[in-house]
Design goal:
Largest sheet: 19 strands, mixed
Number of helices: 9
Strand content: 15-25%
Radius of gyration: 42 Å
Oligomer: single chain
Structural class: alpha/beta
CATH architecture of the domain at 456-605: Alpha-Beta Horseshoe
Shape: elongated
């Protein structure tokens, strides 16, 4: 009897293990217990998901659908069409604003995920797991091919056990909002199938031989190790296995060596190379000429000197060139000549600010037909803005600020740029007036659709009012003088439209048509010689956040429509000739340092200024007092002029007419004698009668 009891227990254990094995591996052939096994598997996976959900914090209730039995319909859950098992868990948060957005998950990551034996895809990026370490148990999800933990505020050591995920093809743990580190990345070499690796912002400062480790990943196509505090970069590799590598981003590290002595120049399969801000120095390497596959090249922020090489003719795929803060110290015309002829029609972005370029822009530049972004700010360019700029109708961003450009604002130069979104010509010597067609920029014009969304011909998708739902823009950062200070913008260039013509010599009126550019976020026309009234249609710029019209010669009253600018956070109308009452409005009352907004306009009155606009003071009396003052001034002026003219007339007569002079002096002598005799007789008579009166008394 005892032996029978033991046999029953052993049989039960075997059946349980068999069921677990079938639940893990699936069933391929028909058997009578298949339905029972699948039901048990479904129950296990559902329980695992609910346990995972219970460990999360979900303040925005992003997972309301996680209830009921059909978990394959839950948000973010993907199941196999063949087996019905969970193969995908996509819970990516708000990647545009993960640091401040409430549309994110938090809490803890439960190890119940280990019961999802078929899980191949796990994306927990752009959430907020503040201070947590990357869970070590993730290394037991052996079916994983895709793992994304980027921008989720993880901290601590990255577990080397992740090297057990031999099927992994995509791995990203970008820690821009976290504090992760690793002192040994040799475990990466075991990820033999890896194609995409992003460990940006992971502290790898103690690792020296990182390149040989990466070189063992033969299938690698994408590698990003930017901001990792790397300090070593070998001159070369004895044997490179990175024949499939297309994207390499090792920007913002501390290599501190000659730019020409680096291993990546021999990886000719590269299409995207970013080694910006890596403390590289020296002249541009001749190896650039062998990078025939290159599409995107960024060498910005390094201490490079001299002109770009002359052997770039084979770079026929070049579309984007970024050389920010490079000491080229040469002619802009020569620079354009050295760009490869075969790629000129493909070049889209040319980013050359503060690169010590000199001379005038070339007179002709027809071949760059696809140019969309041209940034030449902060150089030493001279001469006029060339007419050919107006022929590049695909331009969306043009920055020629902080140069020495001169000449008159020509209608042919800029008004054809109908797709222009970002225009900055500040701090030049441009003169003339703005033509009416100057505001013919469709990229700055948006309309409101029937659904309440805001649309622009430039955008491929709609954007909600206030910019809450905007398509991703460029990844590069750029500076804009807005809201009274220089600000750094990243990824906002698609919806941050800018018009800056400050610090020039532009005259005339501000065109009324400025009100059609309703997508404007920043309008800066300060330090010019604009005159006339502020256009009333400026109140149509509902998106504008910064408006600066200071230091001009504007006159008249401030339009009441200005108080309708609900997005306005910075306003400067100082040092003009504005007059009248300052408009009231809730938005205008929220601006900082309000009195300084209107300083230098003695004709303005009303809050927030101390000068009141009294409505009870009779206007006619004020005018009469003014008239009386004017009459007095004119009376004394006329009297003075008449006196001077009279004296001068008499003197002229005496000077040129001797006879008249003799008669006049004879008349004065006789009159003097008569007066003297009369006075003497009168005085003698007075004394006689005084003495007689004294004797009598």
């Amino acid at each position: 009897m005892h032996k029978l009891h033991v046999c029953c227990i052993q049989l039960a254990i075997v059946l349980f293990l068999l069921a677990q094995t079938e639940c893990s591996n699936g069933t391929s052939a028909y058997n009578p217990n298949e339905t029972v096994i699948i039901t048990r598997c479904i129950t296990t996976e559902r329980s695992a998901l609910l346990a995972f959900r219970a460990g999360l914090s979900d303040p925005a209730n992003l997972l309301p659908s996680w209830e009921g039995d059909d978990y394959c319909r839950w948000k973010g859950v993907g199941c196999s069409n063949r087996t019905g098992r969970v193969v995908k868990l996509d819970l990516q948060g708000d990647c545009g604003n993960s640091i401040i957005s409430k549309q994110v998950l938090g809490g803890s990551i439960s190890d119940s995920l280990l019961d999802l034996h078929h899980l191949q895809y796990l994306d927990l990026s752009c959430n907020r797991f503040n201070g947590q370490q990357v869970p070590e148990f993730l290394s037991s999800l052996h079916s994983l091919r895709y793992l994304d933990l980027s921008e989720s505020s993880f901290s601590g050591r990255i577990p080397p056990q992740l090297g057990n995920l031999s099927s992994l093809r995509y791995f990203s743990i970008d820690s821009i909002f976290g504090d992760t580190d690793s002192t040994d990345i040799s475990w990466l070499s075991r990820l033999s199938s890896l194609e995409h690796l992003d460990m940006s912002w992971v502290n790898l400062s103690t690792i020296v031989h990182w390149v040989p480790t990466v070189n063992m990943l033969r299938s690698l196509k994408f590698l990003s190790l930017s901001f990792c505090e790397l300090r070593t970069s070998p001159d070369s590799l004895l044997h490179s296995n990175l024949t499939s590598l297309e994207t390499l981003d090792i920007s913002c590290n501390r290599f501190n060596k000659y730019v020409s002595s680096n291993w990546f120049w021999n990886v000719t399969s590269l299409k995207h190379l970013d080694v910006s801000s890596c403390q590289l120095h020296g002249r541009f390497p001749d190896q650039l000429g062998s990078m025939t596959s290159i599409v995107h090249l960024d060498l910005s922020g390094n201490n490079l000197v001299g002109m770009i090489p002359s052997n770039l003719n084979n770079l026929c795929n070049l579309e984007e060139l970024f050389l920010f803060e490079i000491n080229i110290n040469g002619s802009i015309a020569e620079f354009f000549e050295r760009l490869p002829d075969c790629s000129r029609s493909k070049l889209r972005n040319l980013f050359l600010p503060m690169s010590n370029l000199t001379g005038s822009l070339p007179a002709k530049l027809e071949t760059f037909s696809n140019l969309t972004w041209l940034d030449l700010r902060g150089n030493n360019l001279t001469g006029p803005v060339p007419i050919w700029i107006g022929e590049h109708t695909k331009l969306t961003d043009l920055d020629l600020s902080y140069n020495n450009l001169v000449g008159i604002m020509s209608e042919d130069e800029l008004t054809k740029l109908v797709n222009l979104q970002y225009l900055d010509l500040a701090y030049n010597n441009i003169s003339g007036s703005l033509p009416e067609s100057f505001v013919n920029f469709k990229g700055m014009v948006i309309t409101r659709g029937n659904d309440g969304g805001i649309y622009s011909p430039f955008f491929s998708t709609s954007m909600s009012y206030g910019g809450a739902e905007i398509m991703d823009g460029f990844n590069e950062s750029f500076k804009v003088v807005t809201k009274g200070q220089e600000q750094l913008y990243t990824r906002e260039i698609v919806y941050m439209v800018n018009l800056d013509l400050s610090c020039n010599n532009i005259i005339g009126k501000i065109p009324e048509e400025i009100g059609t550019l309703v997508a404007l976020k920043n309008l800066n026309l300060s330090w010019n010689a604009f005159s006339g009234n502020i256009p009333d249609k400026i109140g149509a710029l509902l998106q504008v956040e910064s408006l600066d019209l200071s230091h001009n010669e504007l006159s008249g009253e401030i339009p009441n429509s200005l108080s309708a600018l609900a997005s306005l956070s910075h306003l400067n109308l100082s040092y003009n000739n504005l007059s009248g009452k300052i408009p009231s409005g809730n938005q205008l009352r929220t601006l900082d340092d309000q009195p300084s907004i209107y300083i230098g306009n003695p004709g303005l009155c009303g809050p927030p200024l101390s000068k009141s606009c009294s409505q009870t003071e009779p206007v006619p009396f004020v005018q009469k007092d003014q008239e009386d003052e004017n009459e007095k001034v004119f009376f004394f002026l006329a009297m003075g002029i008449g006196y001077v003219l009279g004296i001068w007339t008499i003197l002229c007569i005496f000077l040129f007419q001797r006879k008249w002079r003799a008669i006049c002096f004879s008349f004065y002598d006789s009159m003097y004698d008569r007066v003297y005799v009369q006075v003497a007789v009168t005085w003698a008579s007075f004394k006689f009668y005084k003495e007689k009166w004294a004797e009598t008394n």
